[in-house]
Prior knowledge:
By secondary structure, this protein is α/β, with parallel strands linked by helices. It has a single domain (4-144), classed as Rossmann fold (3-Layer(aba) Sandwich), CATH 3.40.50.620. Helix content is 35%, strand content 21%. It has five helices and five strands, in the order βαβαβαβαβα. The protein has helices spanning 16-25, 48-58, 74-80, 93-110, 128-136, and strands at 4-9, 31-38, 65-71, 85-90, 113-118. A five-stranded parallel β-sheet has the order 3-2-1-4-5, with helices on both faces. Strand 1 (4-9), helix 1 (16-25) and strand 2 (31-38) form a beta-alpha-beta unit. Helix 3 crosses helix 4. The longest helix is centred in the middle third of the chain and has 18 residues, at 93-110.
Amino acid sequence: MKKIALFPGSFDPFTKGHADIVLRASQIFDEVVIGIGQNSQKKRFFDLEMMIDCIEKTFINDSKVRVEVFSGLTAEFAKQIGSNYLVRGLRNTTDFEYENTIAQVNQKIGQVETVLLITSPEYAYISSTIVRDIYRYGENVDEYLPYHLPLNLKTN
C-alpha cells in the first residue's frame, strides 16, 4: 500500500524551511502532497495561483511531490487523498505545543497520524510571517525562499 503524507499549511509564502521538510518527508513516504489550506476568513498576502506555480516549479523534477488546494478540515482532506499521515515541521517548543494539540485532534477525528520533523538548524529562524514582513517593506527575500519573488510584485 502506498504511503501518502499530507504536508498542510497556508504557505504564504512557501519557504526554504518548508521545502526542506518536503524533501525529507519524500525520503520517508511514497508521495508527499503539499496541501494549501484555504481559509475564507483569512486573506492571503501572496496570490494563491502564483504560490502554487512557485511550489510546483520548486519540485518540478520530483515525481513524489504534488500540490493541492483544499478547504475544510485537514483530517478530512487527508482521507480524500488517501493519506493516513500528516507531516509537520517543528522549529521550537512553541511549535511543539501547538502541533501536539492539533495532532491529537486529527488523530481523534480522522485517525490520521502526525509525523513531526525537526526543522534543519539553517532554516529554524525562517517563518512565513517574517518573510511577508520583510517583503512588505521592500526588501529582497530570495535567501528565504526556494524560488525568486520580484520586489515589485502586486500582493493581495
